[in-house]
Write a structure and sequence with these properties.
By secondary structure, the protein is mostly helical. It contains 24 helices and 5 strands. Helix 3 packs antiparallel against helix 4, helix 14 runs antiparallel to helix 15 and helix 19 runs antiparallel to helix 20. The longest helix is centred in the C-terminal third of the chain and has 81 residues. It starts with a helix and ends in a 7-residue tail after the last strand.
Length: 661
């Protein structure tokens, strides 16, 4: 089981700023005291570097003050102002000041710093390059490109850390890769990097703070995968470190992860005890980010435990922290969850108000993302234009050289042209053949989709007839027979018993007709959407020996009817198979929507089975129906199971062709 909303919220809140528990007056006093110490330094070079670091500190609080210190440092660098090292340093620190206020300018300055510092082969320059690539990747992650952040860490930061043989730095960046992969729900890949990070941070040069962070985050990753024994071991190792640094700024997160662990174990009492400890530590640190993160974990646990009023109160406590931040994604998530909690509590007017605020947040987020995309495209266009000019210059030089070549060269060129024409002809033929093949395949898919839609339309019609026609007639019969029974006196005892039995039979018939109608076309799917329909389906299949938990995140309503019906039938078929074969006592159904993809997971704790991909063709008609629907939706699926270990089925479906017309 996984809850991606928890992880995304935690990482984004921790990314808001530093964890120093200082008010504005304390920040000013601290900055001024540091400046006085710098002023007493005798050497201009050391003084300039210290001023740049002081600007880095002020970039989180007062960008104008930060630029003042950068200008002061620049004056001290006049003697070597054109050296690549000095130019790289100035670009790096200017980028840091623009990090939050102008991310596009920050990215340009980071790349300018890289061009300068890559020319300098000292260890100090390499350490600056590690910092700038980490920051650049973080900005790309903010732009909605988490793969770019992972790429920057793996291909730039880690090789540089390896080159300078700093095992602690290398361990920290292995952990950064793992956290990014965990945020992308690539939990198995994240596991490998957490193991490398823990191995590197085990050396004496690493700090206990970094070791604690690695153990706690690796435990969270294990909890997401339901590897609870592994999580328990990692939390125990984290506790051994935590005892040595009880005032660690990561203490609240340790308790929050421990609370999530107990939540997975179903021990609500211990879970809430850990969340209370985490909140107490976060408040002692006066860290808004930590308080909000722990409260959000606590909210999800309240919700899963069915304690909706307390879940609402936890969300309302988180609200002030996210509303004063600049990250709209967090505001969007809190508004959405408040709307759903109010709806579940029956407060529909309040729920509607929160949904309106959620819609505004979504629009703002999409607008900001759109502007960032436009600037990125403009940058690529400018780069392409420069490459075009360079290409034209090279072409002119080549022509001048070709004019001096002998006649024999033309023979070679003509031969190459013939070969090129042959190659173009072959490519054209292959492309045409593949296009025809794709067209035939698409035609078959359209036929299958039309047949499936016709089948579902017919089911819908029959369901309405059963529900509105026969169901109404049977209900009327029931009412008439009840009236007859009420008019009978005590002497007609036998007749009355017979009529009562008949009423029970008719009552059963009404329920049966409605059950058939719901199975053929669930009413909640047409009237309330996919999330409500799947929730009703899970509730209807539960019984005393089986609990089915359902969770949905960020499911939009703008999808075609064919898509909604297909997803509903897939879940219905998977749960039916689970009921027939798994002997499970607990099952989980989850769906979410992110980055143009629809994700669906169905898991159980049953007996499992021996699975290989070659066995798929031997499965029954139900699984074949699921595969056909997956082909129609252009989706992918994977099965993770083994004897005695339950079954986990994960499905992803692209949404670009399934929007509502």
């Amino acid at each position: 089981m996984f809850y991606p909303s928890t992880l995304t919220f935690l990482l984004s809140m921790l990314f808001l700023g530093t964890l120093q528990a200082q008010n504005s007056g304390a920040v000013r006093a601290y900055g001024d005291s540091v400046y006085r110490k710098i002023s007493d330094m005798p050497e201009d070079e050391k003084k300039a570097k210290a001023l740049l670091e002081l600007s880095f500190f002020w970039s989180d609080y007062d960008t104008a003050q930060a630029f003042i210190y950068i200008r002061e440092a620049t004056k001290l660098m006049e003697t070597e102002k054109d050296s690549p090292y000095q130019l790289g340093l100035l670009s790096f620190y200017k980028a840091a000041v623009h990090f939050d206020t102008d991310p596009q300018q920050a990215k340009k300055l980071y790349m300018l710093a890289e061009r300068h510092l890559s020319k300098v082969k000292t260890e100090e320059a390499m350490r600056y390059r590690i910092r700038l690539w980490s920051s650049y990747g973080a900005l790309r992650q903010r732009d909605g490109e988490p793969n770019d952040y992972v790429d920057a860490l793996i291909n730039q930061v880690i090789p540089l850390a390896t080159a300078i043989k700093d095992t602690a730095l290398l361990g920290n960046n292995y952990q950064n890769v793992a956290m990014a992969l965990m945020n992308m729900q690539k939990y198995k890949e994240a596991d490998q990097y957490y193991k490398r990070a823990i191995a590197m941070l085990g050396v004496s040069s690493a700090s206990d703070e970094h070791r604690l962070t690695a153990y706690v985050n690796a435990a969270r990753n294990a909890v997401f995968q339901r590897h609870l024994e592994q999580a328990e071991k990692l939390l125990s190792q984290a506790y051994d470190v935590f005892k040595r640094i009880p005032l660690s700024t990561y203490g609240p997160i340790y308790h929050a992860v421990y609370g999530s662990y107990w939540k997975k174990r179903g021990n609500w009492k211990r879970a809430f005890e850990q969340f209370d400890l985490g909140l107490a530590r976060a408040r002692a640190l006066n860290s808004d980010e930590m308080i909000a993160s722990v409260l959000f974990d606590q909210y999800e646990t309240y919700k899963e435990a069915g304690r909706l009023p307390e879940a609402k109160e936890a969300l309302l406590e988180v609200l002030p922290y996210v509303e004063k931040s600049a990250i709209w994604r967090n505001k969007q998530r809190i508004y959405y969850n408040l709307a759903n909690v109010e709806r579940d509590l029956g407060n529909f007017e309040s729920s509607s108000a929160w949904f309106k605020k959620y819609a505004v947040a979504v629009d703002t987020l999409m607008e900001d993302t759109g502007e960032a995309r436009i600037m990125e495209l403009e940058r690529k266009y400018q780069t392409a234009e420069k490459e075009k000019e360079l290409s034209q210059t090279r072409e002119i030089n080549q022509r001048q050289q070709l004019s001096l070549v002998r006649t024999q060269t033309w023979t070679i060129i003509l031969s190459l042209c013939c070969l090129l024409l042959i190659a173009v002809g072959a490519i054209t033929f292959i492309t045409f053949r593949n296009r025809k093949r794709n067209e035939n395949q698409q035609a078959r898919m359209r036929i299958f989709e039309a047949v499936a839609q016709g089948e579902e339309q017919e089911r819908s019609r029959v369901a309405r007839d059963l529900h509105d026609g026969l169901g109404g007639v049977l209900a009327a019969i029931k009412l008439k027979l009840s009236a007859i029974v009420n008019q009978r006196d005590s002497t007609a005892h036998d007749v009355t018993n017979s009529l009562n039995n008949l009423i029970q039979d008719v009552d059963y018939s009404v329920d049966e007709v409605r059950r058939v109608a719901r199975n053929m076309m669930p009413e909640s799917l047409r009237s309330m959407g996919l999330e409500a329909a799947l929730g009703d389906l899970c509730k209807s299949l539960q019984h005393d020996n089986l609990q089915i938990d359902f969770a949905a995140d960020n499911i939009s309503a703008h999808k075609s009817t064919a898509f909604l019906i297909s997803v509903y039938r897939i879940v219905q078929e998977l749960l039916t198979n689970m009921l027939k074969h798994s002997q499970a006592t607990h099952a989980w159904v989850q769906c979410s929507e992110r980055d143009g993809e629809f994700y669906l997971s169905v898991e159980d704790n049953g007996i499992g089975f021996l699975y290989t991909s070659s066995r798929e063709n031997n499965f029954g008609m139900g699984i074949q129906n699921i595969k056909n629907r997956m082909d129609m939706l252009q989706g992918k699926w994977s099965i993770d199971t083994a004897p005695g270990e339950g079954v986990s089925i994960h499905i992803s479906i692209p949404l670009h062709d399934h929007r509502k017309n």
